[in-house]
Write a structure and sequence with these properties.
With 861 residues, the protein is of the alpha+beta class. Helices cover 56% and strands 18% of the residues. The protein is built from 35 helices and 13 strands. Helix 27 packs antiparallel against helix 28 and helix 30 runs antiparallel to helix 31.
Length: 861
C-alpha cells in the first residue's frame, strides 16, 4: 500500500523501492509486480517494466497486466514482440469494447511493422463494425500497401462520414495524393481543387502540400496555367531547400509551357541558386535552363548551362548528350564529338552513337562517322520508323561521299522501304548510276514525280538523267536534259557539261557558246581550259591561246595544258609562245605520273614529238648537199645544154640552201622559203665534176597545206658552166612517209616512202618532167642514232616532150644507212648523213631494155 501511495503522490522512485522491498519480503507477487511495472513505465525504465509485467503474468495477473506488457514492449521499441501479445488480447477479449481496443492496437503495431495490408484489413473491419473514423487509417494503410483501389474506396467512405473541415481537407489531400501516385492526374487535380476551399483549415505544412500537389497535377495533366498559381502559393509556405528547389523547377517548366520563357529562365536560375540545394537538384535546374535556352536559340548560353549540369551530376549520361546536341547545332563539332563520346562511356545508347557519327562527319572524318554508325546498326531496329529512316539516309550520304556506292544503294533503298519520298529517290538514282546500275538508275529517276521536288533536286535529277544519256552516247537526249536544267537555273557546272555534250556530239561551235556561259558564271580553270579546247577545235586559236595562258598564269602546275598551249599558239602562228610553251611542257614531263612502262613510253614519245615541233619552228636556215655515183649505160641527158654523147642517168652532186624569213617563214606548218641551189655532173665513171656543167638556181618555195607535205616552187635557173641553161622553172613536189624519222626507243618499224615531182621549164626548150619514187622496207634502230633500212624501190621519170628519149622506169632493192646528229636543247637532231646503196633494173622509153647499177651517197647538212 505504501508503494502505491508514494506513486500516487508523484514519488515514483520511492514507490519503486517500496514495491521492490515488499516483493523481497514475500508480499503478494501478482499485484506487487504489476504495480512495480506501472511505476517503471512511469520512470521510462522499459526493460524493468517488461520484466515486472512478465513476473506479474506468471504469478497469475490478468488482462490489464498483459495490456501493460504490450505497451511496455512498444515503448521499448520491441513491436515484433508486442505483436503476439496484442493478437492474444484480441483472441481473449470478453467484450466488444475489449475487442475493438485490442484490434486497433494490433492494427497500429502491424502498420508500424510495415505490414500495411494486414493493418488495413484490421482498420477496415473495425470501420465496418461501427467505427467509421478508422476508414481514414484504413485508406492510409491500403495506400502504403499499394492497394490504391481499396485506399480510394476507404478514403471515400471516410469522406462520406466526416464533417470537420480539417479532416475533410486532409482526406481530400490524401485521396488526391493517391490518384497522383496512380498517374491519374485529372482525378488527382479534381481532388486537389475540391480541397482548395478548405485550405485555411489545414496546418501550414499541409497547405504547402496541397498547393504543391495541385500545381504538379495541373502541370502533369497538361494545364500549366493552373500549375503556375498553385506553385507560386506553395513556394512561400515551403521551408526545405529540396522542396523549394523542386517547386522552382516545376515553375520553370510551367512558365516555359505557357510561352513565358523569361519567367521560366528566372525560376530555373533561382532553383540553381537555392542555398542548400543538392547537387542533383542544381544539375536538374541547369539542365532545364539548357533546354530552355536552346529553344530560345541562345546556344552559347545553353551550352554553358549543360556544362554546369554535367559538372554537378557527372554520372548522368543524358547531360553530355544534351551538351553535344547543342554544340552540334552551334557548329562546334569538336565539342559535340567530345560530349557524345563521354555520354557513350556512361551509357551505350544507339541515338548517341548516331549523333557521334554525324558529328564526326561534320568534322570531315567520314571514316570515323561510318564506324560509329555501323556500331549503332544493331540497335537501329528498335528506333521509331522516322529515326530509322534518318539513320539510313545519313549512312547512305556518307557511303556516297566515300564512293562506296553499293553500300549507299543499300542504305537508300532501306530508307525508301520505310517511307518513299521523291528526294531520296533522286539520291538513290544517283548512287545506282555511280554503282554501275544504269538501268536501275534510269527506272528510279524516271519514276520520280519531278513536280514534287525542290528546285535543287529537280536539277540533280536532270543532271543524272543527262549523265545516263551521255554514257549511252544519246547526246541529243543528254542535251535536252541539260537544257531543261538550265531553264530552272543557269549554273556553271550544267553549262560546262552541256559544252562537253556538244563537243562529243560534233558541235564545237555550240560547245564554245556553252563553255563561254560557264566561264561567265564561274571563271574556274576547268571551265576556261574547256573553252580553250573548244576554241581550238573551231580554229579560234588566238582566243584559245588567251584562255590557256590565263589558266596557266593562275596555276602553272596545270601540266597537260602547256603542251596544248604550244599547239594552239603554233596554229595561231605565234611561234615564240608556242616554243616557250613546248619547252615548259618538256621541263614538266618528269612530273607527269607514270603507272606503267606503256605510260613511260608515251611520255617519251610526247616529249620527242614536241622537240620536233620546236625544231621546225626554230629552224630558219637549212643546207642540203648530195653526191651520187651511178654506173651503167644510158642515153643523153636532157636539159644539159647539149654537148657530146653523155649519160641519161648521170652521177652528180649539189648543194641547196633554204632560208625561212621571219614571221612568214613558218606559219602553222605552212612554210615559205627562199632557196639557192648549185648542181653539177660527174664525169663518167669518175668522181670528178664536169666544169662546164655547173647549174645555178634561185627562187622561192611554199608549202601551202598544213597536213600535206606539198611544196610549190618557182626558180630562176642560171648558168655557171657553159653547158648549163638559162630558164624559169616551176616545181610541184609532194612526199608521204611512214617511218622515215627516228622513233626513239623502238627497235624496228615499218618504212614506207613516196615522192612525186612535177617540173615545168617555161622558156628555152619548154618541157615538163614527171618523177615518182616509192620505197618499202624495214628500219632497224641502233641507239636512236643509226638507222639501217633495207628496202625495195621503184621509180620512174617521164619527159614530155621526150626529145632525147630519156624517160625511164626502174626497180630493185637497196640499203640505207642514216646517221643522225647535231641535237640542241629542246630539239631533235638537226643533221644527218645518209649512205644509200641501190641496185635497179629498168628500161629507157624507146630503147632496148638495159641494166643499170646505181650507187648513191647523199650526205645532208
Amino acid at each position: 500500500m505504501k508503494g502505491l501511495l508514494q506513486s500516487e503522490q508523484g514519488n515514483a522512485a520511492a514507490a519503486r523501492r517500496s514495491l521492490e522491498a515488499a516483493l523481497a519480503a514475500g508480499g503478494e507477487k501478482a499485484r506487487l509486480s504489476q504495480s512495480l511495472g506501472e511505476v517503471c513505465l512511469e520512470l521510462k525504465d522499459y526493460p524493468a517494466a517488461i520484466t515486472a509485467f512478465e513476473q506479474a503474468l506468471a504469478a497469475g495477473a490478468g488482462r490489464e497486466a498483459k495490456q501493460s506488457l504490450a505497451e511496455a514492449l512498444v515503448k521499448a521499441s520491441r513491436p515484433e514482440q508486442a505483436l503476439p501479445v496484442y493478437e492474444e488480447l484480441v483472441r481473449t477479449a470478453q467484450t466488444s469494447e475489449e475487442t475493438t481496443a485490442a484490434r486497433e492496437q494490433l492494427a497500429n503495431i502491424l502498420s508500424r511493422l510495415g505490414r500495411h495490408a494486414a493493418a488495413a484489413a484490421q482498420y477496415a473491419a473495425l470501420a465496418k463494425a461501427g467505427h467509421p473514423a478508422l476508414w481514414f487509417k484504413a485508406g492510409q494503410s491500403y495506400a502504403a500497401a499499394r492497394d490504391t483501389d481499396q485506399a480510394v474506396a476507404s478514403l471515400q467512405a471516410y469522406l462520406a462520414t466526416v464533417s470537420d473541415p480539417t479532416a475533410k481537407a486532409e482526406t481530400l489531400l490524401a485521396l488526391a495524393t493517391i490518384r497522383a501516385g496512380r498517374r491519374d492526374y485529372a482525378k488527382a487535380l479534381a481532388a486537389y481543387q475540391e480541397a482548395l476551399p478548405l485550405a485555411d483549415a489545414l496546418p501550414t505544412d499541409k497547405r504547402a502540400e496541397l498547393f504543391l500537389g495541385l500545381g504538379t497535377a495541373a502541370l502533369l495533366s497538361g494545364q500549366p496555367g493552373k500549375a503556375i498559381g498553385a506553385l507560386n502559393r506553395a513556394l512561400p509556405l515551403t521551408q526545405g531547400s529540396a522542396a523549394r528547389t523542386g517547386i522552382l523547377l516545376s515553375l520553370g517548366q510551367a512558365y516555359a509551357a505557357v510561352g513565358r520563357p523569361d519567367e521560366a529562365e528566372a525560376a530555373l536560375r533561382r532553383a540553381a541558386a537555392t542555398p542548400g540545394a543538392s547537387r542533383s537538384a542544381v544539375a536538374d535546374a541547369y539542365a532545364g535552363l539548357g533546354h530552355l535556352l536552346a529553344k530560345k536559340d541562345d546556344l552559347n548560353g545553353a551550352e554553358s548551362a549543360f556544362r554546369q549540369a554535367w559538372t554537378r551530376n557527372p554520372r548522368d549520361w543524358r547531360l553530355p548528350f544534351a551538351l553535344g546536341q547543342v554544340a552540334y547545332k552551334n557548329g562546334r563539332y569538336d565539342v559535340a564529338t567530345t560530349a557524345f563520346a563521354a555520354s557513350l562511356r556512361l551509357h551505350d545508347d544507339v541515338r548517341t552513337r548516331i549523333a557521334l557519327g554525324r558529328s564526326d562527319e561534320k568534322r570531315g572524318k567520314p571514316g570515323l562517322a561510318l564506324a560509329e554508325l555501323a556500331a549503332a546498326a544493331p540497335g537501329v531496329g528498335a528506333l521509331p520508323d522516322a529515326e530509322r529512316r534518318d539513320y539510313f539516309l545519313a549512312v547512305g550520304f556518307l557511303y556516297a561521299g566515300e564512293h562506296r556506292y553499293a553500300d549507299a544503294v543499300t542504305a537508300y533503298r532501306a530508307a525508301q522501304a520505310i517511307r518513299t519520298d521523291p528526294e531520296t529517290a533522286v539520291r538513290l538514282g544517283r548512287v545506282e548510276r555511280l554503282d554501275g546500275q544504269p538501268q536501275e538508275a534510269k527506272r528510279t529517276l524516271l519514276a520520280v514525280d519531278a513536280a514534287a521536288l525542290p528546285e535543287d533536286l529537280k536539277r540533280l535529277r536532270l543532271s543524272e538523267l543527262a549523265s545516263l544519256a551521255e554514257a549511252d552516247k544519246a547526246y541529243d537526249t543528254a542535251r535536252g536534259y541539260l537544257q531543261d536544267s538550265l531553264e530552272h537555273k543557269v549554273e556553271a557546272d550544267t553549262s560546262f557539261r552541256l559544252g562537253n555534250v556538244e563537243r562529243a556530239s560534233g558541235h564545237p561551235e555550240a560547245a564554245v557558246k556553252a563553255y563561254r556561259q560557264a566561264v561567265q558564271l564561274e571563271d574556274s580553270d576547268q571551265n576556261l581550259s574547256a573553252l580553250g579546247y573548244a576554241l581550238a577545235e573551231t580554229k579560234h586559236y588566238d582566243e584559245a591561246v588567251t584562255a590557256f595562258e590565263t589558266v596557266l598564269a593562275r596555276d602553272p602546275d596545270y601540266l597537260s595544258l602547256w603542251e596544248d598551249l604550244g599547239y594552239a599558239a603554233m596554229h595561231a602562228c605565234d611561234n615564240a609562245t608556242s616554243v616557250a610553251s613546248f619547252k615548259q611542257a618538256i621541263d614538266n614531263a618528269p612530273l607527269r605520273p607514270v603507272d606503267s612502262p606503256a605510260d613511260r613510253e608515251k611520255r617519251e614519245r610526247d616529249v620527242y614529238r614536241m622537240r620536233k615541233e620546236i625544231t621546225k619552228m626554230e629552224t630558219h636556215l637549212t643546207a642540203t648537199a648530195y653526191l651520187s655515183y651511178l654506173s651503167g649505160d644510158a642515153g643523153t641527158i636532157p636539159g644539159s645544154g647539149g654537148g657530146e654523147s653523155v649519160d641519161t642517168i648521170r652521177s652528180g652532186g649539189g648543194l641547196e640552201v633554204a632560208w625561212l624569213p621571219p614571221y612568214i617563214g613558218f606559219r602553222d606548218d605552212r612554210i615559205f622559203q627562199a632557196i639557192g641551189r648549185v648542181t653539177g655532173n660527174l664525169k663518167k665513171d669518175t668522181l670528178e665534176f664536169e666544169r662546164d656543167a655547173w647549174q645555178g638556181a634561185v627562187g622561192v618555195r611554199y608549202k601551202p597545206f598544213r597536213p600535206l607535205n606539198l611544196n610549190v616552187g618557182f626558180e630562176r635557173l642560171f648558168k655557171i658552166g657553159k653547158d648549163a641553161e638559162e630558164n624559169w622553172l616551176l616545181r610541184v613536189m609532194e612526199s608521204w612517209t611512214d617511218g622515215y624519222a627516228v622513233k626513239p626507243g623502238e627497235k624496228w618499224w615499218n618504212y614506207t616512202f613516196f615522192y612525186g615531182e612535177y617540173d615545168y621549164y617555161t622558156e628555152n626548150n619548154k618541157r615538163s618532167m614527171f618523177y615518182g619514187e616509192v620505197r618499202q622496207g624495214l628500219t632497224y634502230n641502233v641507239r636512236d642514232r643509226l638507222l639501217i633500212t633495207p628496202h625495195l624501190v621503184a621509180d620512174f621519170r617521164l619527159w614530155t616532150p621526150d626529145r632525147d628519149e630519156s624517160s625511164y622506169i626502174e626497180g630493185g632493192g637497196g640499203l640505207s644507212l642514216k646517221y643522225i646528229f647535231n641535237r640542241f636543247d629542246y630539239e631533235v637532231e638537226r643533221s644527218s648523213i645518209e649512205f644509200l646503196l641501190q641496185y635497179k633494173y629498168g628500161t629507157l622509153f624507146n630503147k632496148r631494155r638495159s641494166e643499170t647499177g646505181k650507187i648513191e651517197s647523199a650526205p645532208c647538212f
